[in-house]
Amino acid sequence: MEQVDTKKSLWISTASGILAILIFLFILFVTYLPNQPESADAQLKLERFEQAEMTRSEGINTLNALKSLDAQNSKYAIPVERAMELTIIDYQK
Dihedral, CA atoms, 7, 12, 15, 18, nearest 10 degrees? Predict the structure, then answer.
């Protein structure tokens, strides 16, 4: 008879422990996670993101711009997309 009570109490203890952990996680999720305070460096992160976007757009504009490297020798920088197309056409000949 004592073995049955021991197994039953062990099962109840395990279930209670798991339930307590789940309740804690639920309370944490409902109260804290949706209301996280803004981090102290949020403004810095925003500035870095804007600077990265500006640098990326400048790089894309540079890659897609046609410019003269040496006008006397007829050397020009052409956009990357166009250079790839011309290379493919050249290899297909």
Answer: -110
Task: Look at residue 11 and give its three-state secondary structure.
Answer: helix
Query: Which amino acid appears at position 65 of this protein?
Result: A
pLDDT tens sequence for the chain (93 residues): 455 577 888 889 999 999 999 999 999 888 877 777 777 788 899 999 999 999 999 988 887 887 887 778 778 777 878 888 889 999 998
Residue 76: DSSP 8-state:
E
| C-alpha closest to that of 63 among 43, 47, 83, 45 | 83
Where are the alpha helices (H) located in the chain, listed in sequence order? 2-31, 42-63, 80-92
